[in-house]
Amino acid sequence: MHFDGPTQVAESLRSVNYLADDRISQVVFLASRLDKPVLVEGPAGVGKTELAKAMAASTGRELIRLQCYEGLDEAKALYEWNYKKQLLRIQSDVDHDWDTISHDIFSEEFLLTRPLLAAIRATDPVVLLIDEVDRVEVETEALLLEILSDFQVSIPELGTMSANTQPLVFLTSNNTRELSEALKRRCLFLHIDYPDAEREQLILEARVPGLSGHLAGQVAKVARSIRSLDLKKAPSVSETIDWARTLIALSVEEVDEDVLGDTLHVLLKYQSDIERAAKELTSTPAS
Amino acid sequence: MLPVITGFIDELREAGVPVSMVESIDAMKAVEAIDLASRTALRETLRATLVKNLRHERAFDTAFDVYFSTVPLPSGESDGSPPADQGGEAAGGEGGPGSGDFDPDQLFNALLNALAGLDQEALRRGVREAVERLAGMEPGRPVGGTYYLYRTLRRLDLAQLEAQLMEALSGDDDLTEFEERLLREEVESLIERLREEVQEEIRRRLVADRGREAVAKTLRRPLIEDIDLMHATSADLAEMEAAIGPLTRKLAARLARRRKKRTGRLDFRRTVRRSLATGGVPADPQFKHPRPHRPEVWLLCDISGSMATFSRFTLQFTHAMATHFSKLRSFAFVDTIDEVTEFFGPGIDFGSAVSRITTEAEVVWLDGHSDYGNSLETFHTRYGSQLTSRTTVIITGDARNNYRPARDGILADVAKASRGLVWLNPEPIAYWDTGDSAMSHYGRHCTSVHEVRTLRQLEEFVETLTLPSGRPRQNA
Hints:
The complex is a heterodimer. By secondary structure, chain A is an alpha/beta fold. In chain A, 49% of the residues lie in helices and 14% in strands. In chain A, helix 1 (6-14) crosses helix 2 (22-34) and helix 10 crosses helix 11. By secondary structure, chain B is of the alpha/beta class. In chain B, helix 2 runs antiparallel to helix 3 (39-50) and helix 17 packs parallel to helix 18 (408-417).
């Protein structure tokens, strides 16, 4: 994968129906040029994870994904020794002395690779996605530091394993907590916000087959309008896409108050939000 | 290029954005890899390498505008030749400032057409002329340009521009109320774009006049986490709201944490189950997970007049906390206290919660001046018996008691009955105990007392908070 410039990144992403703006394509270009991980932040559902998937699809690389959660540890993120296989090995071999065996059982054969190590050991370059990194505890974050700065993993029994190929790394965060400085320092920072109405219209047109330009424009404008309200959860891009699909399924040609009132629940997920949006945007309150 | 970038990084640091050595080296490396002709490329490259926090982006944008402003074209030459051969509706050839006569209507129409047709070039040309003609900029004055911005926009008659844009974009159909709303928002976003263009143009001229460092210094504003909560504007508070969410989550985690002791009791069933895989040799003992600790938090907020801005902030904080703590009770007081927990229930937006507190909660008993003594006494008689060893009590207020009796003995009882008692005071430590402040009377009974004047200090408080992990039981 070699890009000449951000426009090429944007084109490549466009080929898999991901519309990147200037900022996204510039940062991805830098990441590929400088071999640095990208920390993608932003509200839920603006296409953070999608960006990594689109990069994998457009460059034909394999996507290796590590979903983070509270309680994630080394054994699930990096590697684990295949304990049972080691035991079998010891039991099946009675002829050799302990020294030979003990040396033998800590070899790559007995290593279970987890996503991070898998990304490093891969023979073809991959895209590594570390999803929702803000969910792990601060202490666990430290696990990532070595791989992010040097693309290597140190295993006490085996030594340091460095990357065969340079993976393209994306970390996503919903910013539910502040990430550590050490982590941020190693990454390029990319904040993705809700797209403006024009770009959202283009995204809708690319993502929803059969959607007319006029309707896409209307959907994008309604989405902008709703996001300007003070809501518990603003509609995400994926929700506007769902909404556009709903409109097509209902063979709606024109968004008006009635249509909006009937389908608001696709865009908004809290009853209080639905009521509020209905009150603001339509003259008849939703039931 | 290099000196400009180092200057730019210095300015960011000056403005409070933490830029580490490694990051500045990264920025330099990155700049070498990009196409320097594109200002967007440069902007996004520097942003991605230097700014790692959304809250610092405003400071970044301001500094970037100043440090990498395009050189303004000298008037006269700027609009003279190029627009003439571009023809087009905007700024039509002979109307350029070079010719001397200036027609406000023509400029108005040029801007209108540029906005309606989304013509970036024409817009820029129009804005350049508008600033040239209308801002009345005087060279050498050490100002940030807000006044020039205001003056240009006022003379442009934005209301009229908005109305005409509505007309131009609506076509001939009659609009329903709903369509009109969407259109109005469209127009508002266009006007906002014009405003930004004008601001940028003004900054560009200021930089040309006074140089980068000087302008950057005038424009420098404290970061959102350094703004004094007592004097924050409502726009500042709105911006802080985004930061409060993660902070309350962290606080929830802090309060739930227990000192790590032995993990629970031996889980016999799991131990046997696990060891079956290896035939019982070796057996790896498994322990039951200790029950997660459910923190209970009671929040007491002073919402008297002297605390207006700060109390708005603490109420925001309370509102955010209500989503993370199932057992949060909140109380508001001025000279007496009332429980306001129900106003922050799930699904209630902040605005209506505040208006209900001010209208429905009974927080004024006598004259509406702070009376901590009476508030505490009322609190203790009404709710004191419900305090348990799991309750953490947080009081926010300046402890300015209007020289009324402090009755701090009550606070000692509250502290004894609860897990911990924390006091957050928005005044600088130097002012504590001056005048009618009774801070040290109250402070000596608290588990800890913190000065919380800024968001940053609140973050520090959350970061360092440690409470005794439950009091020893007397009769276990």
